[in-house]
Amino acid sequence: MAILLKGGTIVSASGRRQLDLRMEAEIIQEIGSDLAANPGDQVIDVQGQFLLPGFIDAHTHFELNNGVTDTADNFTTSSRGAIVGGTTSIIDFATPERGGTLRDCLAEWHQMAERKTSCDYSYHMSLIEWNQQIASEVPLMIEEGISSFKMYMAYDNLRTSDGAIFEAMLAIRKEHGMLGIHCENGDMVNELIKKLVGEGHVSTHYHPLSRPDSVEAEAVERYLMMADLAGLPVNIVHLSTQRSLESVKRARDRGQKVFVETCPHYLVLDDQLYDGPGFEGGKYVCSPPLRSKADQAYLWDNVISGEIDTISTDHCSFNFKGQKELGLLDFSKIPNGLPGVETRPILMYSYGVATGRITLEKMVALLSEKIARQFGMFPQKGILQVGSQADIVVWNPQGKGVISAKTQEQAVDYTPFEGMETVGSPRQVYLRGQLVAENGKVILGNQGRFIHRGTSDWTC
Asked: Any idea where the Amidohydrolase-related domain is (predicted)?
């Protein structure tokens, strides 16, 4: 049976038009003015609503063990939060054990996600070491639909040497893949933590001081110099500071192709939250940390200007009670990460579109179309056009609400955006033509499928 959405306004990254849309057999079959209903069509009146392509979050950690504790959420609970917020596809991070193979890691992540996930999903493959075995598996990952990779410059259990990063860049370039890196100088982070804790500075106030903007900017600069030598277009994940973006602009002036992602928490929260009463600052411990209001304003300026390409979440949820509290006496013991997959679209609409900072077309580009193009999913996803998958968010611009942990689908016991007032909301969410969420409630769960991605579009 076809579903006919009548009277809505279809929005893309390049414009908007009031058109009807018919979807059937998972695909958008027809778009046009005043489409007539066929016998058996389910006709839904969406007048006054925006029809947006399903949002894509290219940076999630749905199910992760940080070496001490497991995330509060998993693929099932995190993905329920995703779809009620309008996110119909995610790209998670598959991370192998040291000494393990990429093939085994991929099989493990498939086992965690398959038939348990309510949005469509793919993975970036993390490269936490580099050797002949791992290098030989990079082409295999491309064949399996995993066309993007991640490496780390921080975290002792995850990071590799600069030499390993450079060798991986050359191998990934041969396969026309995409590399993203967590850019912080791990040695400097370790030394700063050792110094601060040794001096008795153990409260959450000192978390951002252990990872200042220079630590991120130095790693970004080093990463970009290596990428220049390798001739590889690269991605910078969760960029958080003015100094880092200035490095990106210099690289672009040299002719380098650089993709930049930031996250909602760097746009709507700031480092003053680390000085909250008691241990409240523990809720906001993530890496890179929240930054100054000046950094926040600079990031917004560059979202508006287009220097920042995409907005994803780095969703990584640990409970405040019992997990974040592991660092009550030492900020460096607090599990790093914030939940965010459920709230990203509504935050960007409320604090971007509704405030006049960005257009709705820009929001669609940042949260959907550019991500689909960058990570080999376009035009299967990221746009509403005939032949594309019917991942559709019916967006109510008149919706109003307040973000609260009490009403969220995620299993984590808090939200860093507690009490923030919102404008606009997803009325209905369709995943490949099926109604999966409506008015903040899951209608049909566990319908997600693996997305076999093509190689990255380096020109987008």
From this structure: 50-436
- Which residues of the chain carry a pLDDT beneath 50? none
How many C-beta atoms lie closer than 10 Å to residue 387's C-beta? 10
- Return d(Cα 53, Cα 46) in angstroms, integer: 15
Question: Of 237, 198, 232, 203, which Cα lies nearest the Cα of 220?
Answer: 237
Please give the full DSSP string across 71-138, using - where no structure is assigned. Answer: -S--HHHHHHHHHHHTEEEEEEEE-PPTT--HHHHHHHHHHHHTTT-SSEEEEEEE-SS--HHHHHHH
Report field, pTM of the whole predicted structure over 0.90? yes
State residue 456's pLDDT score.
85
CATH topology of domain 54-374: TIM Barrel (3.20.20)
- Omega before residue 96 within 30° of 0, cis: no
CA distance 105 to 102: 5
Map out the domains of the chain as residue ranges: 54-374
Cα separation of 458 and 351, whole Å?
30
φ, ψ at 330 (rounded to 5°) = -165, 110
